[in-house]
């Protein structure tokens, strides 16, 4: 095992970044309903993402960073990443959320790299537009294949961890697939299921050597 890829929202971070961002606008419940449907696979991810980000138009960019720098991490996140790296894993995060959150989390949690989306701002306020690496249902799988090619790592050497429907595409390219406090749609694709919200549980399922 050489590569571990984590989802971010509701996997490393305890919640959904976009739901936290919607709160100051009084839209948390509305956005959370759309998020939940997307994670259950009931909505196209691209359409749900653009719809939710459009609702954030007018939020101060400084407020975005303030919120993203105070997000709560899941129990055991830092310890698990440190343990994986000590075993020789490269640890990467793929997020359908935003670089404002994942870039800060990289500094806090110590993973090696992150791929996420970018919220567009104009004159210090969100414009309601978004772009980036993780916009579609297939994005995580596509990026994982490219990363495996670049690092010369096989699916047999790859561990993936996620919770929602948009993680399915990366599950297709890894032999060790952890559904962490996940939706039923992802559990069907997993060969390890963890329902206790402590990421250190992952370590008990791994080989003693990596």
3D structure, described in words:
This protein has 210 residues and is of the alpha/beta class. The protein has a single domain (3-205), classed as HAD superfamily/HAD-like (Rossmann fold, 3-Layer(aba) Sandwich). Helices cover 37% and strands 21% of the residues. The protein contains nine helices and seven strands, in the order E-H-H-H-H-H-E-H-E-E-H-E-H-E-H-E. The chain has helices spanning 17-22, 28-39, 45-54, 61-68, 77-86, 99-109, 139-151, 168-171, 184-187, and strands spanning 3-7, 90-98, 113-122, 125-132, 158-162, 176-180, 192-194. Helix 2 packs antiparallel against helix 3 (45-54) and helix 4 (61-68) runs parallel beside helix 6. The longest helix is centred in the last third of the chain and has 13 residues, at 139-151. The termini are close together. The model has no long low-confidence stretch (mean pLDDT 95).
């Amino acid at each position: 095992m050489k590569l571990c890829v984590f989802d971010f929202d509701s996997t490393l971070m305890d919640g959904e970044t976009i739901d936290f961002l919607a709160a100051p606008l009084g839209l948390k419940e509305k956005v959370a309903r759309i998020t939940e449907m997307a994670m259950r696979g009931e909505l196209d991810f691209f359409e749900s993402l653009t719809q939710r980000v459009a609702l954030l138009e007018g939020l101060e960019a400084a407020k975005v960073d303030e919120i993203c720098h105070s997000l709560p991490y899941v129990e055991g996140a830092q310890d698990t990443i440190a343990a994986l790296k000590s075993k020789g894993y490269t640890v990467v995060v793929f997020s359908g959320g935003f670089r404002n959150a994942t870039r800060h989390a990289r500094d806090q949690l110590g993973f090696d790299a992150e791929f996420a989306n970018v919220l567009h701002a104009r004159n210090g306020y969100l414009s309601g537009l978004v772009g980036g690496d993780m916009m579609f249902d297939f994005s995580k799988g596509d990026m994982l294949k490219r990363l495996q090619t670049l690092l010369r790592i096989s699916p047999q050497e790859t561990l993936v961890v996620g919770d929602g429907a948009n993680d399915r595409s990366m599950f297709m390219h890894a032999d060790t697939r952890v559904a962490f406090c996940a939706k039923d749609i992802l559990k069907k694709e997993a060969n390890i299921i963890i329902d206790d919200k402590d990421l250190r549980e992952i370590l008990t399922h791994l080989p003693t050597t990596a």
